[in-house]
Amino acid sequence: MTDPLQLEGYQHLYSGKVRDLYAPLDPRSGMPREDQVLLVASDRMSAYDHILETPIPDKGRVLTQLSLWWFDRLDGIENHVISADAPEVPAAVAGRAVLVRRLEMVPVECIARAYLAGGGLEEYQRSGSVCGVPLPPGLVEGSRLPVPIFTPTTKAPIGEHDLPMTDDEVQATVGSQLAARIDVLTRRILARGNEIAGKRGILIADTKVEFGVDRSREDHTGGPLVVLADEVLTPDSSRFWPADQWSPGGAQPSFDKQFVRDWLTSPASGWDRHGGEAPPPLPDDIVEQTQARYLEAYERITGQTLP
Q1: Mean pLDDT value across residues 76-103
Q2: Model-level pTM greater than 0.70?
Q3: Cβ contact 243:198 at 8 Å
């Protein structure tokens, strides 16, 4: 992974699989502010708990701009955005950075599924359920679920696997009130996403979101405000399928990073997913096709070209 940019007026805090976090420096004291974070989306690609050697051009801008587009359309769901424009966002990262409120992050990966794919499919094939939620027999890859379900996982450090969590485990981790709230909000985001994307010919099979808690404010229940953070309904965090090609019973065409996962596990890559070695660099044609898929996802959903 390349070293993060040095941004004047900001202190680098942390680099994740895709994003770099910076604290704005207080102009009077020169100390990092504790209430705000600059969230910068890179072009790094992660897959199977590895950060790949090869970046995908335009990826950081797609994730940032598509998230901002969705934030404006998720009515009634508080988000963390302060500003995506100058002067709060430095010119060096314009278009792929957002100044956000610093939150107490919920230590759960919040996933909602409307269709069966990926890790959910693998778990269903083993147990007939996903994260303790029983499902009808006879479902296959790509099947639409009777109702969308909440299937959270742990938040593992980089290089380790996220593990499925049952509702009881989520409650034990964050408490029953917060567990119920993130369940409802995650499924609401997926439902709203499908309501909008469906009109544009895209099915959102599943999505992963993150929440933080703002203890300085209360929600309608009288508890601390739960805030949507990080990204939302992007090709990195969701499976986007063309609706007119949906056909249960096998892998679905997609506008997301599943394309990269599929190449990595194909004979063409020569990589053993379970062998412990880092994945190989992506060939130019895979990079170009992945970039094209991300841009098409943005354009289909928003009806706009990437600014």
Answers
A1: 96
A2: yes
A3: yes
